[in-house]
Design goal:
binds 5-O-phosphono-beta-D-ribofuranosylamine, globular, GART, two-stranded antiparallel sheet, transferase, seven-stranded mixed β-sheet, EC 2.1.2.2, purine biosynthesis, Phosphoribosylglycinamide formyltransferase, Rossmann fold
Length: 202
């Protein structure tokens, strides 16, 4: 059974989609630990409601040691690290030890509207501002950049003329909640093959 760690920074709706997929038996994996980079977020409540071990590694307390502390909590304990609404940037040994075993979900069609400072509602505000006709979400491998890893899965949504950032965000979230469990399932089945920047789903 695939063992995963889920890293969060907020409400945890993507964490919830993984929990729900496991409960529905459509995802054969075990969430060994939830790690939050800040306290008092609803995602921690979701972990508690489902008796999932959770740790707070406060970015304000750990600063540059954040990644090392998280690495100490997951090394030799999980097969895959899932960033689910996680806002801190991982670096150092954890990236080497978990090469091609860390995935992230971003609420746009990368390479649009991503990178440093582009997170949460800002992503959707930028898409609306730019006037794109489609947006969506991307699940990608995490490398040493910000939202630059090889793309595994993308799901697209239309953008309507009367959309607000919030209405677009809600439409994209529906697809996020499908995409992340789908990718974790494919990973658990060994069906994701990465060749350079290309990712082939077998
Ligand atoms: C989501 O849009 C996710 O794509 C982004 O953070 C937002 C909040 O995620 N990375 P969640 O509800 O905390 O899972």
């Amino acid at each position: 059974m695939l063992k995963i760690a889920v890293l969060i920074s907020g409400g945890g709706s993507n964490l919830q989609s993984i929990i729900d997929s496991i409960k529905k038996d459509s995802l054969d994996c075990s969430i060994e630990i939830v790690i939050a980079d800040r306290p008092n977020i609803y995602g921690l409540e979701r972990a508690a409601q489902n008796n999932i071990k959770a740790e707070v590694v406060d970015r304000k307390q750990y600063g540059r040691e954040l990644s090392e502390k998280i690495y100490s909590l997951v090394r030799d304990k999980v097969d895959l690290i899932v960033l689910a609404g996680f806002l801190s940037i991982l670096n150092g040994d954890i990236l080497k030890a978990f090469k091609n075993r860390i995935i992230n979900i971003h609420p746009s069609l990368i390479p649009s509207f991503c990178g440093k400072g582009m997170y949460g509602i800002k992503v959707h505000e930028s898409a609306i501002e730019y006037g794109v006709k489609f947006s969506g979400c991307t699940v990608h491998f995490v490398d040493d950049g910000t939202d630059t890893g090889a793309i595994i899965c993308q799901k697209m949504v239309p953008v309507y003329a009367d959309d607000t950032a919030e209405t677009l965000q809600n439409r994209v979230l529906v697809e996020e909640h499908k995409a992340l469990p789908e990718v974790i399932k494919l990973f658990s089945e060994g069906k994701i093959k990465k060749i350079g920047r290309k990712v082939i789903i077998e």
